[in-house]
């Protein structure tokens, strides 16, 4: 009996070993097969038979996504700087991944980002990780779906609509000045202050009610840091999209998060959906708000029913908050640093603005302010050095090949060389504002704050050079809120220049605190930076 039990036990043990050996063998075989596939795929990517095989660039980037993964995920947001180095080595057209090309020639922008009916999709690789903005215009891959969504919301950001709501912007600009001047001698974090202003503007403008950040005793909470926190895993999600649902779990932990992050999560997951549902219920009951809101405008539009779902409209609202908060806020912060660092430029700006301010100190309208050439020059130079979305924004031409013709002077060469490249349809090609804004052929001394570069020989706006600004992208997918952004910048910069800057001084802040170091969609300085800070140093008149 004992022998029989031993034999049975031995048989079971042998079967167990066999099963495990089989499983191990299977996994090993699959791993080897996957590795062989990747090697073959990489070899194909760098072969002359690949549709992008003729585009210059580093071989490893053409073969695999490893360089992008290393510089964006491991070194965190550094691939844009590496791409800039690629251009210095390989020229204006560079292959930066197996299926993507990058351009550093503003003359080709209208081909990559055209207006009209020329179709341009967004590459799926770049919109992965959009998270709370997955169904927004910004993250829409398909050209036709994007056009439908954009058409429904574009009228809400028309120049006429912005002008009608301009008094709200003037009011918030003056409240910002009041709050800064009341700061006293305590150091002020400039980006946080401007973030409060820009968030109050976009929330009041779009949703009919300001979030009230300027009404707080302090400058916190605000949405600036939590927005960047939500963007932090974006690069990883591009390579591991199956991890993205984990980010959604953060909404259930809002009570355990820092106050500012908890507030943002609550706004995105509770307040906005409830606001959409209430607006829909009011419209169904025949009740219309006195002031048109984004939600009301979209719900009353001709969009298909699926485009009016609570989730999609919430994503759209999240996109508006993210874009409307940081783009304007950071541009103002960078401009403030350079004006306070260049007193003669600040004095010239004050003199120009003072000529259109009435005896009561009341600022004129946006249409009057935008006619001031030096104010416009300062705004454009501040935009150039703040970049907007600094990461690359690629497009995919689905119905046509793109053909580039240009010149390039390689290092050590005696003169320019003519180059031509055909970029086949179906492949991504894009530009990056950080790289474009430091093209020395377009912007000499590109790292220096020179507003005068935006003026022509008659000291008027240089309209041709203005076409080279890339903060709001270009073409049919350009930022829908560009009119609102320019209105904000003109009004609040004029208010700050006249009321605040004469009494403000930078505090332990250097150019390293404003210079680009890496990006999370938007630009960020070195991690060691303590921010752009200032103090109020002299008596003032309110």
Automatic annotation (TrEMBL):
Main localization category: membrane
Q: Which cofactor does it need?
A: heme
Q: Which family does it belong to?
A: Belongs to the cytochrome P450 family.
Q: Where in the cell is it found?
A: Membrane
The reactions it catalyses are: 7-methylmellein + 3 reduced [NADPH--hemoprotein reductase] + 3 O2 = 7-carboxymellein + 3 oxidized [NADPH--hemoprotein reductase] + 4 H2O + 4 H(+)
Provenance organism: Aspergillus caelatus
Q: State the name under which the record lists this protein.
A: Cytochrome P450 monooxygenase otaC
- Which positions bind heme? 479
Q: Which domain of life is it from?
A: Eukaryota
Topology in membrane: Single-pass membrane protein
Q: Which residues cross the membrane?
A: 21-40
* A GO-annotated cellular component: membrane
Gene Ontology MF: a single term? oxidoreductase activity, acting on paired donors, with incorporation or reduction of molecular oxygen
- Keywords, comma-separated and alphabetical: Heme, Iron, Membrane, Metal-binding, Monooxygenase, Oxidoreductase, Transmembrane, Transmembrane helix
